[in-house]
Write a structure and sequence with these properties.
Layout (H helix, E strand, L loop, with lengths): L1 E6 L4 E6 L5 E7 L2 H11 L6 E6 L3 H15 L3 E3 L5 E2 L2 E2 L10 H14 L3 E6 L2 E7 L5 E8 L1 H11 L7 H7 L9 H28 L3 E5 L14 E2 L3 H9 L6
Parallel strand pairs: 1-4, 4-5, 8-11, 11-12
Antiparallel strand pairs: 1-2, 2-3, 6-7, 8-9, 9-10
Length: 249
């Protein structure tokens, strides 16, 4: 079995695959100890290969790699920046500065479509990336996602105070808010949807015919705008498989 890890700043997304690359189980944990416990429940003794992508510091990555090697006694492959991967050319002037999660996601999207793609990741931050028919990454944008927008308003504006539970109850509508919570949640949603609409318009100018990929936890909040879009939760993992193939497969 293959253990795949996507290590963000605060959470670790993981999943276990069979040798044939079919998904068996997945989850999200906060730390390495919790990760080992979760995997042990399903497949600890049968892990033959580990691959991971991380946005954490080199020291943190090295510590996790040592822990995984000790736990499973297997090779741990770590994705690293690249100028070219699977037919895609990194578009950053300093290719090592492009976030690895963004890089792997856009590579996976291009690999699936074999033509121009726009990849929009809607998480804590929102990113968009443009890849041409020739596989050339044309660059992208980064802006605050819904969690950052609402956090900044609630933190820095004295009279904007409401709880997470109230916020959850008023999300989903795009009608004008009749309470502070509604006004904030729906206002932020309109900003996100406006950003996405602008990205699609710009992609039409830059790329011509293209496919749209949506990923990230808030992708569902904009998917109704783009019925042609492919909503893919596993883009980063798909790119990770290209960057760190299992030679035993």
């Amino acid at each position: 079995m293959i253990l795949e890890l996507d290590c963000g700043n605060s959470l670790i997304k993981w999943r276990v695959l069979s040798a044939s690359q079919s998904m068996i189980v997945e989850g999200v944990v906060q730390g390495s100890g919790e990760l080992l416990d979760a995997v042990a429940v399903v497949a600890c003794a049968q892990i033959h290969f580990v691959r991971m992508v991380s946005v954490r510091s080199d020291v943190e990555v090295a510590q996790l790699v040592d822990l995984l090697r000790e736990a499973y006694g297997v090779v741990v492959a770590v994705a690293s920046p690249a100028q070219v991967l699977a037919g895609v050319a990194n578009g950053y002037e300093d290719y090592e500065r492009l976030g690895l999660d963004r890089w792997l996601a856009l590579v996976a999207a291009y690999q699936r479509s074999s033509r121009a793609v726009l990849v929009i990741d809607l998480g804590t931050a929102i990113t968009s990336d443009f890849v041409g028919d020739d596989g050339a990454h044309r660059g992208g944008f980064i802006c605050p996602g819904l969690p950052l927008m609402r956090s900044q308003l609630r933190t820095h504006t004295r009279k904007i105070r409401y709880g997470d539970e109230e916020g959850l109850m008023v999300r989903g509508s795009i009608l004008p808010g009749r309470s502070t919570a509604e006004a904030v949640e729906r206002g932020c949603l309109h900003m996100v949807r406006g950003f996405v609409e602008e990205q699609v318009s710009l992609a039409a100018e830059l790329l011509g015919n293209f496919d749209v990929y949506l990923t990230g936890g808030d992708a569902g909040l904009v998917s109704d705008m783009l019925p042609q879009a492919r909503v893919c939760a596993d883009l980063v993992f798909a790119g990770l498989a290209l960057a760190c193939p299992f030679e035993g497969a």
